[in-house]
Design brief:
globular, alpha/beta, 2 domains, single chain, 5,6-Dimethylbenzimidazole Phosphoribosyltransferase, Chain: A, domain 1
């Protein structure tokens, strides 16, 4: 795995965007967060009037050994079944991406199923799922690093094809469990404060899930100062891949629209590996998962939407594309007071 050089946030482009916002035909600051978002996008891209012509969502799919211990309401086979649903265009992420005009890239980085010969999948399988972290480290350090590299390679390949803004997505039954473990460790939070119901487990199974995460952390003793050690011991291949997507996109000045709790856990790992990526992150929404707000607070990000989503797949991030496009259109297409012949105050 080769960590990439991350460019600086372009303060000059951001300042120019801010000055333009101040002379558009509206009271100063009256479009609130839309104005701030457009200025941030200018700084990310290095363009004072950014626009996005090719939106994309990268969905990392992987199975998790811990799912076999009963931490999820769904069986592990659903991961592969949903990947096939993505390919057929029948999942929520497909519907929302069609509406937003975004390309969906589905990556098999670690699903316990043979997709050989099936088109529409980016075949990058590193393992047939992770190990059960209640017994063994979820991955080796080498696998975690390889997973990050897969994410870097996939996103840079999509950027070369023209993608200029990316959202993160995932599919993996049981993946809120490693996400809670990662969040607890990297934010120094109690496990119970960052663990919730995932696919809809009841109180009894939630209690078991919290205890399972605590046991895994105690068993493997991940080093909070070493994010790859944390990722390897209690993470998953989908999270590793998304970490790479975030790092790779930031290295090319491509804004990263971070989806839900699992994507947030990947953003935590990426930010601890390379803090310079933080200005390139956009918090798409506040999910119903308890630990999601802890992640946003830790990264000092304010989510755009709050719709009580807890699906994953990139669904909330793709919905946020509409707000992001609105912000850039306001900046680029609205008339100034001088152009419109409107008196300023």
């Amino acid at each position: 795995m080769n960590l990439l050089s991350i460019p600086s946030f372009d303060q000059i482009a951001a300042q120019k965007a801010c000055k333009r916002q101040d002379v558009l035909t509206k009271p100063l600051g009256s479009l609130g967060l839309l104005e701030k978002l457009s200025v941030s996008l200018a700084g990310m891209t290095g363009s004072e009037q950014p626009q996005f012509k090719q939106k994309g969502v990268i969905v990392m799919a992987a199975d998790h050994g811990v799912a076999l211990s009963g931490v999820s309401a769904y069986p592990r086979e659903v991961t592969a079944q949903m990947v096939l649903n993505f390919v057929k265009g029948g999942a929520a992420i497909n519907v929302l991406s069609r509406q937003a005009g975004a390309k969906v890239t589905v990556v098999d980085i670690g699903v316990a199923y043979d997709f050989k010969g099936i088109e529409g999948i980016c075949h990058r399988k590193l393992a047939w799922g992770s190990q059960n972290m209640l017994e063994l480290p979820a991955m080796t350090r080498e696998q975690a690093e390889e997973g990050i590299q897969v994410g870097i390679d996939v996103v840079i390949e999509e950027i070369h094809k023209g993608m200029d803004i990316v959202s993160t997505g995932e599919m993996g039954i049981g993946n809120t469990t490693p996400s809670s473990a990662i969040t607890a460790i990297l934010t120094s939070s109690p496990v119970k404060d960052v663990t919730w119901r995932g696919t809809g487990i009841d109180d009894k199974r939630l209690k078991f899930k919290i205890e399972a995460i605590e046991r895994a952390i105690c068993l493997h003793e991940p080093n909070p100062q070493d994010p790859i050690d944390v990722l390897a011991k209690v993470g998953g291949l989908d999270i590793a891949g998304l970490t790479g997507v975030i790092l790779g996109a930031a290295s090319r000045r491509v804004p990263v629209v971070v989806d839900g709790f699992i994507s947030g856990a990947a953003a935590l790992v990426a930010a601890h590996l390379e803090p310079a990526i933080k200005p390139f992150l956009i918090a798409s929404h506040q999910s119903a998962e308890r630990g999601h707000s802890v992640i946003w607070d830790h990264l000092d990000l304010r989510p755009i939407l709050n719709l009580d989503l807890r699906l994953g797949e990139g669904s909330g991030a793709v919905l946020a594309f509409h707000i992001i496009e609105a912000a850039t259109r306001i900046l680029n297409e609205m008339s100034t007071f001088e152009q419109a012949g409107v008196s300023n105050k």
